[in-house]
Design a protein that fits this description.
homodimer; about 250 residues; alpha+beta; Jelly Rolls; Arc Repressor Mutant, subunit A; 2 domains; four-stranded antiparallel beta sheet; about 25% strand; DNA-binding
Chain lengths: ~250, ~250
DNA sequence: CGCGCAATTGATTGATGTCAATTGGAGTGG
DNA sequence: CCACTCCAATTGACATCAATCAATTGCGCG
């Protein structure tokens, strides 16, 4: 299931998180050092592995260093719904720090590497450096803002528009941590996984992808998505990036 | 639009929030006093009033004292989606504290009364009493957990099941702040507003309400919902209350 | 070469939306 | 107390989007 695990200190490992923060606020040198001093252990996961189990009581919070992960809800009838997609720099399981019992599981969408930070270390750092504490807090409220946008998509958008919206969102998020540029991004997600994100059947996702291709808005070949006309795509998707909080401000 | 506004200190006003916290963690006497000392102004709103405007930059966070409020997303084509329903004791706009620019609006679902607390007072209290700070943080992560459950409902549940699920959720949340008992609750929500919660048309909501009535699971008369068989309803809805975090634990 | 998974296609079904009326109660003014 | 209005709830007919079922294709890999 897992191939390695090493105990160490954050140092360079944690740079995606620093980018995530720096994109949204200024971070002093000492603050940066404090974050880099967080104790952590890293672990690799293969595509499909469970990173955190539903109903478990984690003692560490998990941060994605590499690859994609997803929060997954299991329904009684076996259906699945992904409630969030996480990319490098996302402090995925800060929620578990305060919620104690996981209401969902987290799984690896692609092969990925994650860092685990003990809860006490996070709490202590947040008390010692309240501004960093607020940035952790912010990270969870940005997750919530994204979830609100998803609720809007699921409730009131058509399948095509929803997919278009998601592509806009993923591009901007990946771009914010330097993992996408020139309107292209690697998206290691099968159409079947995409169907669990969009709340559709895999068959319909296929049709909808083809429709976006036909209208010349995107190309999607072997896990690489290219946005052929960003302005037209955002307009088509009625996409307003406010909720991603991609503005550097005192928080 | 608004009929009164007074500047004061939290004191007894804020008791729904204390109940919200005490249901989930132990709160010391001094902590309670610190929360009650928060400066606030209260304001009344009528059903339909906008409490916080989308794209505004609030300088205070808003807490519901009385009545129901909802987070509302407006789509380009005029459609609306409610992303959260808030009841007394919900610190609705703690999100705005860290996100700076509102990505949605908050409106009054029923006539209601809200308290506004200046951001600096919240930040200062969180630094002074880190445990209270974590409870504020927890409040936003519970919002997020509820939103995840809603994503699951919107994506993978049928209309009837979704409505049943929502009724279970609302009952437990209202019960947790002593606003519902004996399987009955006041639900001041029209079928049309319900349609913006469930992401359905108002017509279909009507059909679905009738179906739940026909199967003997609920009665819903003039804003009062009675759950006729709670166990059968939760089973029908595949409802797992974990995500509401109704357990008293050190946070 | 053959296996397995992802993508694709076609035919059909089913759930929910839309449009258009109708009913019923609560308030309001005469 | 009676029109009258307004809004919420309700109903029916029909249209549409997306699900389901069942193949088929294409590709990477041992």
């Amino acid at each position: 299931m897992t191939f390695d695990a090493e105990q160490t200190t954050a140092s360079a490992e944690i740079s995606p998180l620093l980018r995530f923060f720096q994109r949204r606020d200024r971070l002093g040198r000492e603050e940066q050092a404090l974050i880099e001093a967080l104790p952590l252990r890293t672990q690799r996961f293969r595509r499909g592995d469970e990173i955190i189990r539903q109903h478990s009581r984690p003692l560490e919070s998990c941060l994605i260093l590499d690859g994609f992960a997803a929060r997954l809800l299991h329904m009684a009838d076996g259906k699945r719904q992904i409630t969030a997609v996480h990319i490098p720099g996302d402090f995925v399981d800060l929620h578990g720090l305060l919620l104690k019992v996981m209401d969902h599981s987290v799984t690896a969408v692609s092969d990925c590497r994650a860092a685990f930070v003990p809860h006490p270390a996070i709490i202590q750092l947040a008390e010692q450096a309240p501004h960093i504490g607020r940035l952790f807090w912010m990270s969870t409220t940005i997750d919530a803002a994204i979830q609100r946008a998803w609720i809007g998509c699921l409730g009131r958008r058509s399948a095509v528009t929803h997919l278009a919206y998601l592509i806009c969102e993923m591009y901007l998020r990946l771009n914010a941590v330097d993992l996408a540029s020139d309107n292209r991004m690697g998206l290691p997600v099968t159409q079947s996984e995409m169907s669990d994100i969009l709340g559709l059947s895999a068959v319909h996702v296929n049709r909808v992808v083809q429709e976006l291709r036909r209208t010349g808005l995107i190309s999607w070949v072997k896990g690489e998505v290219t946005i052929l006309d960003f302005d037209r795509l955002t307009e088509f998707a009625d996409f307003d990036p406010t909720y991603l909080n991609l503005m550097r401000q005192p928080r």
